[in-house]
Amino acid sequence: MEVQSIRAIPLEHSLSPGSAFGGTRGVTETRTATLIKLVSDDGTVGWGEAFAPPRTVAQLIDEEFAEAVIGLTPWDAESLADDVYTGTIGGYHFGRGPFVQSALTGIEVALWDLRGKLLGKPIHELLGGRSRSSVTPYASTMYITEWDQDPASPMQEAVEEEFTAAKIKIGRSVEDDRERVRIAREILGDDAPLMVDYNGNYTVSGALESIRAISEFDITWVEEPLPPEDTEGYRELGQKIDVPLAAGEAHFGRFEFTDLIRSGAIDVVQPNLGRCGGFAQAEYIAQVATTNNVKVRPHVWNSAVGVAAALQFTATVPDYPQRADLANEATLFEFDRSENPLRDELLTDSLDPSDGTLSVPTEPGLGIEIDESAVERFAVDY
Ligand SMILES: [Mg+2]
């Protein structure tokens, strides 16, 4: 089986005017994704997602990757990643950069999808076996909104949808943080895991003040209280608080992740299967993380293709280490509840988190079937 064609497909859905939303670092007016479609010589199709500005990453794939990808077999996923660091793709100047790593990820995941379909096995079986057949989806919700949304309403919706865990956006001020967490905890109930996400909007002193102000509400992890590049700040903060620190959605490639994990700065690492470097890099990251007593919980804010990739990966993640403060935690899996038809409409059979569990697909490859008419509906020119 050889790759005969590659197509990068930038997708975009514009939110209606006035309905932009996001986190403390800003709101978004669109939801986007870039799908990668590989077609092999026997007609098998492999899909992946590159999670980066769509037109830019599509252009990058055409310019830097396309020629090298034609003729690859499903067994070349790992060597493609190596080429990005040492060969001509991206070159040693740009290979480790966010855009190249995102493009690599989309193609690498699509090669794994082909590999699974060739062997008739879901990717999690090929990655070292299934540690679990389902995960506990948590609602990513209570966004910072452009409109004056009552913060209680999205959490009430999540509870009505039977989510048993949630993550909310905070980080605008200590008072606001405390009030939002109080509301979330009240609606979610005392026993449900609750996480908070600052999107890197504080310095150490502000983060410390905020985390202390919300500590009575039993937070499962605190996500990106500091900018992703402030590793030393994470270390300093971690020494002063008892709540686990999480980061990784803005890290790229195995070298950055290794530095982050080995620095001792974080307790939970969050690679995204649309930009961390692909399945092989994610598995390496998971091994380094668990060897260094760091939990692995992917960041998932992708289209359905990226969600499926994260789900295949999460099925394989070791339970180790059994930290006391996370020991009884289910395998939490991010499930975004904001408006995104790219998450909800691209599959013939949508991933369903509605009863508090999300099953890991067992069909070959990513285990999903793409509705190509839906893909074309959101495709944009570049
Ligand atoms: Mg986040």
TrEMBL record:
<dbReference type="Pfam" id="PF13378">
    <property type="entry name" value="MR_MLE_C"/>
</dbReference>
<dbReference type="Pfam" id="PF02746">
    <property type="entry name" value="MR_MLE_N"/>
</dbReference>
<dbReference type="InterPro" id="IPR029065">
    <property type="entry name" value="Enolase_C-like"/>
</dbReference>
<dbReference type="InterPro" id="IPR013342">
    <property type="entry name" value="Mandelate_racemase_C"/>
</dbReference>
<dbReference type="InterPro" id="IPR036849">
    <property type="entry name" value="Enolase-like_C_sf"/>
</dbReference>
<dbReference type="InterPro" id="IPR029017">
    <property type="entry name" value="Enolase-like_N"/>
</dbReference>
<dbReference type="InterPro" id="IPR034593">
    <property type="entry name" value="DgoD-like"/>
</dbReference>
<feature type="domain" description="Mandelate racemase/muconate lactonizing enzyme C-terminal">
    <location>
        <begin position="148"/>
        <end position="244"/>
    </location>
</feature>
<dbReference type="InterPro" id="IPR018110">
    <property type="entry name" value="Mandel_Rmase/mucon_lact_enz_CS"/>
</dbReference>
<protein>
    <submittedName>
        <fullName>Mandelate racemase/muconate lactonizing enzyme family protein</fullName>
    </submittedName>
</protein>
<dbReference type="InterPro" id="IPR013341">
    <property type="entry name" value="Mandelate_racemase_N_dom"/>
</dbReference>
